[in-house]
Model the fold of this input.
Amino acid sequence: MSVAPATGELLAANDLSAYYGELKAVGNVSIAFRRKAVTALIGPSGCGKTTLLRCFNRLHELSFDAFVEGSALLDGEDIYASGVDPMAIRRRIGMVFQRPNPFPTLSILDNTMAYRAHGLNRAQRLERAEHALRAAALWDEVKDKLKSSPLRLSGGQQQRLCIARAVAAQPEVLLMDEPTASLDPIATAVIEELMASLAERFTIVAVTHNMQQAARVSDVSAFMLADESGTGRLIEVDDTAKLFTKPADSRTEDYITGRFG
Amino acid sequence: MTTLNGTRERRISKRDRSLGSRRLFASLGAALTLACAILAAASLLAILGYVVVQGIGAINWSFLTQLPAPVGVTGGGVGNGLLGMAIIIGIATAMAVPVGLLTGIYLALFGRGAIPEALRFLSDVLSGVPSIAIGLFAYAILVAPLKHFSGISASFAFMMLMLPLLVRTSEQAIRSVPQTVREGALALGMSNFRATMQIVIPTAMPAIITALLLAIARVTGETAPLLFTAFGSQFWETNPNNPMAVLALQVFNYAISPYPNWQAQAWGGALLLIVAVFILSLGARLMLRRAMRGLEA
Amino acid sequence: MTAEPQFRRLVHFVSPADRGFATVVYAGSILFALLIIALFIMLVLGSWPSIVKFGPSFIWKSEWDPITSKFGALPMIYGTVATSFIAIALAAFVGIMAAVFLADFAPRWFATPLSFLIELLAAVPSVVYGLWGLFVLAPFVRTAIGPALQHVFGWLPIFAGPIYGVGLLTGGIILALMIVPTVTAISRDVIAAIPRDLREASASLGTTKWETATRVVLPAARVGIFGACVLALGRALGETIAVTMVIGNRPEISASLFAPSYTLASVIANEFTEATSSIYISALIELGLILFVVSMVVNALARLMIWSVRGSRA
Done:
């Protein structure tokens, strides 16, 4: 069951498929992501949710032999149209990765100023950096060591730094690929709290393989499943509360109730 | 019952005997491997020791700073050879690093395909070419047409010797930067140029410097190409367009000369060469450890 | 919107900065390739007069006379091959045994510094080996090793004849020292890469460690080890300065290992700057071309073998 793309939504996909050479990893997904809300992409491993996510900031095509069919819409315009600059897209759609990846040779402060934007002077960048670190609930912990190496921070702090780095670029959409997968429960809880406050400013799409997390943090959930040929399909999209209590599709129900992986 | 026992016992004792001789063989074999390993390591120590003992006497301030003395006159030094070595290796590095690093970047970014594989094949071929043949190439390109020997032709030969090392290791260094760091840079909207130059290469820098130190160690002490490129000189020379003295070449010429005081200076020069190479190799190892640490974090 | 596949590459260059970057990267790589191709071409061009004048007989003629401009490379080919094979025979045995020790027998605290020492052998410059060979090894061969061998094996032609100290044997021994680190390091890596299950299976059958090493591990690693030896052989073939200092520099073929000899690299080193006629120079460059081709073939063979066992380019 797929949701027809509605106009007015910030981010949407229209019959989007993603390939690695011969392999169709994601098949004909059409979905619209509610503005300023958290949408969780859930499903068993191998169902294509990360691949789908990476289509939205055009990272998928960096893999060898990878390409895309169909369209992905940002504010109504296809990001895969010819002549579109992928870098411009990536400035509007930010990403947080599964394992924290701060730039090792830049200081904490420089990490949060690493984005590309024209016409900003240093003072403006510093201001943005501070706002971003506050938004990531990291400011108090690092304000005295802004010049030091990010590698000294704990895993949870590094991930919040990566969130700050993405937020400082002031994107419209924030993609999160299993952001708490490599973190301990306490760090996970901190970031889950963050996501709610971040959703007041950004449209968030988060991949998670942890159903409870999806139930906790998201407003909308989208369930994906790989079909017999290994292609990931979008099965159902609905408000989280409704999807988890009264799913429309039996496969969704099987997954939610834990009958498979 | 007893017959059975008796038979069984005899059979066990037979197995014991062959096990015993097998154990003996095993011990001998193990000892042989140890002996060979020690032999190899001991040879190094023997050579090192001899060079240190013979060479240390020749090393003094005038040895390091003076020009070679004429035949029959005692004293003199390898000052111009040290200077020439520094200049020639410096120019060679300046030539080799851009070409080698850029090719390494190309190979790291474009990974698979016919052209990258062809480049790697060419790099392997070059790494196997004897240094004397590379000297002939430098001669053909920069000595014969200009009709004089020069330091720059020696630098050209050294550059060729350094390139395969630089290309191969800088490719590895860039590849060893985790994919996720590069993707993080691109996901922020950076161009490939910025992502590579500002994030990926600085992260790979310790490994690249290791490669550079090893490449310099490789050409320090390399003599064969110098015979018909730098050619040697009796004077101070800072202009790379002229023939230049190089320490390794001086050691060679002194060693095969019939004069004892020159031979003594050969040992001194040899000691200097070994010290230089070992400092570079150790430096490279320390850098490598720093590089590994940086990536583990 | 689009149906056709896009961006089938690892990298996509769009902005002007990226285009400039791409151009510079391409330029560097092309220059790299051109330099190597030019190397081959220049060697061929330089040898051309000699190739034309002497043809294939260059390889089997043994007269090397600059005065009458008659050049035949056979004595040098003989010297190169003989010293290299002595070297690999010695280095293979010692190196493989040492590799077995480092990989399977030595405790970690001993193996690491020992490996490091052996690898340092590879860093010693050629001219230092030559110096040591000339003043330490050659006299030792003349006074100790030579007479000993001649005493026991003097009835063999290879151990007959006067012992000068410099000669094929000394050249071979020095070369062996220079290539032992190569054999040891690569063989050790190849042996260490043999999966543990193989060793454990052998051990569970009640074999000793030595039997496991010689009957199970070494045979499994033999292709890679052979590759290591071929690679080392390639290095020995092209080695110039150390050999030049201890080989005796006489372009003659002799059955005795104690006789002075000449290698392809040595004759170039010794005579290139004195070469007066252009055909002389061309003949010497042709020797360089022979060295290039031989080392290229040997190296390619070696890497194929090592690659097939280790499974990675390193």
About this structure: Chain A has a mean pLDDT of 90. Residues 53 and 175 of chain A are 7 Å apart (CA to CA). DSSP finds ten helices and ten strands in chain A.
